[in-house]
Design brief:
Blueprint (H helix, E strand, L loop, with lengths): L10 E2 L21 H8 L9 H5 L6 H9 L3 H11 L3 H7 L6 H4 L3 H4 L5 H15 L13 E5 L3 H12 L3 E5 L8 H4 L10 H10 L4 E4 L10 H7 L3 E3 L5 E2 L12 E3 H10 L8 E2 L1 E5 L3 H12 L4 E5 L11 H9 L3 E3 L2 E9 L2 E12 L5 E11 L2 E4 L3 E2 L3 H4 L8 E2 L2 E2 L12 E3 L11 H20 L1
Parallel strand pairs: 2-3, 2-5, 3-4, 5-19, 7-15, 9-10, 9-15, 10-11
Antiparallel strand pairs: 1-8, 6-16, 12-13, 13-14, 17-18
């Protein structure tokens, strides 16, 4: 064995110089200047049947909001955006626009340089939020109150639209802070400067929405209780557990869920107190895997490797995210599947992989070839799963679940009348903030129709 092979696991806090922590998670995508904004807005062709609008899950009228930017009407531009997507500020920062609106932009054909729609959206929404309270108001009080489980993008989008329609809303949130993944699960370099909490506070300014923190479904309140108390319930609770690797010794110290560590990072008052491995291995191929890999590198990890069992084209993370990880110094390794965790005095020390390939039928095959990577820290980022018990408990009428997600119709109504759901806990599309917002908005419209019938 080499000297490196004999080294003990090395996980410790404070890997950076103290002065570095103030800037380690600065905004990775700084905003456009006013001049850059006008130049970029002028590139829009204002298509009549704009393909970018079709590509946006929330249906933002993109030509309209960009046109208002050109004429200096930033308030009107932001209202166009927020009328369709009340989380337009966060989505401008985290949406994979390169696979949605910007990929559909006609400027992509030939020029391969789409209009920077996400950056223009951010410019307009940020200007409106800085200017003062939101422009939306509540309709006349309907006298009805709706329950919402989860204060994430889906739940709060539903709450805001219901408030606009004149209903009151009680939101039951399991954590001490609202915001869901926007607050707890998105990389700190994408949504810095407590923006997520600022956005939530701004959204709640419409009134009529009460958030009950530290109220978890299945622990502090049951779905049966909510159905008896409220005429309608919306579930936006996300996914509550992380997929396991299914390996022996998965309980070794240093093997951790990526989502849990990102939440600790996002809520940490002192980044220098966070333990960081010298050699970090991330298992997974989605955006969460990219996020934890980059953040580990930025916190001072010497060597960060992301291992994925298939090729780059099959990764859940976009090509843009993969490129970003490489720029940040993350080593991407494909066609590797973990088969064994190797410990040292109760701590993870190495992880063994098998090389994989696709057979003639396109099925993933494990080969006999093996390789090992030294690892002080192993992060699991292979997806999250729905925990069924909190939803049903001992209910006589359980919610229908298919492929690990709640079953909903086009109105986002579940198998139980009057119970709606949206976001990651449902199979309504890709697990994106923008999709969760659309789910919440669509459910609110259906709930309003139900309450007024």
């Amino acid at each position: 064995m080499s000297g490196a092979d004999n080294e003990a696991p090395d996980v410790k806090p404070g890997r950076l110089n103290p002065s570095a922590y103030a800037h380690v998670f600065d905004d990775i995508g700084p905003p456009l200047s006013p001049r850059e904004t006008l130049i970029e807005a002028a590139r829009c062709h204002f298509c009549h049947d704009a393909p970018c609008v079709e590509a946006c899950p929330t249906g933002i009228d993109i030509p309209s909001f960009i046109g208002k930017i050109r004429t200096g009407n930033l308030k009107g531009s932001a209202i166009d955006i927020l009328s369709a997507n009340i989380f337009g500020g966060t989505c401008a920062r985290v949406c994979p626009v390169e696979e949605l609106c910007e990929e559909a932009c006609v400027r992509t054909t030939g020029e391969n340089k789409p209009v920077k729609i996400g950056m223009l959206q951010r410019h307009a929404v940020d200007a409106l939020m800085k200017a003062g309270p939101q422009p939306f108001t509540r309709a006349a009080d309907s006298g009805k109150t709706v329950a919402i489980v989860g204060a994430g993008p889906a739940g709060l989008a539903c709450a805001h639209r219901l408030a606009m329609l004149g209903h009151k809303v009680d939101v039951y949130e399991a954590r001490a802070k609202p915001g869901g993944l926007n607050e707890h699960g998105i990389a700190a370099y994408k949504v810095p400067d407590i923006f997520a909490q600022k956005e939530v506070a701004w959204l709640l300014g419409i009134g009529g929405i009460t958030i009950h923190n530290n109220k978890a479904l299945g622990r502090n309140v049951t779905l049966d209780e909510l159905r008896k108390k409220y005429p309608a319930v919306f579930i936006g609770a996300g996914l509550q557990a992380t997929q396991k690797l299914g390996l022996e010794d998965e309980a070794l110290e240093g093997v951790e869920d990526a989502v849990g560590y990102i939440e600790r990072l996002r809520q940490a008052e002192d980044l220098s107190a966070l333990p960081v491995g010298r050699r970090v291995v991330v298992i997974g191929g989605g955006n969460t895997a990219i996020d934890i890999a980059i953040q580990s590198k930025r916190l001072g990890a010497e060597d960060v490797t992301l291992a994925y069992r298939r090729g780059p084209e099959q990764m859940g993370a976009t090509a843009h995210e993969q490129h970003l990880a490489q720029i940040e110094g993350v080593n991407l390794k494909h066609w590797l599947a973990p088969v064994r965790l190797i410990g040292w005095r109760g701590k993870v020390k190495e992880i063994e992989f098998t090389y994989t390939r696709l057979d003639d039928a396109g099925k993933l095959v494990m080969t006999e070839a093996r390789t090992r990577l030294l690892a002080d820290r192993v992060f699991k980022a292979i997806g999250q799963v729905l925990v069924k018990d909190p939803f049903d408990g001992n209910a006589r009428e359980p919610l229908a679940i298919k492929s690990g997600k709640l079953v909903v119709n086009d109105d986002r109504e579940t198998s139980l009348p009057g119970v709606y759901a949206g976001g990651d806990c449902t199979a309504t599309g890709s697990d994106l903030t923008v999709r969760a917002v659309e789910d919440g908005k669509r459910a609110a419209i259906a709930i309003d129709r139900r309450l007024r019938s």
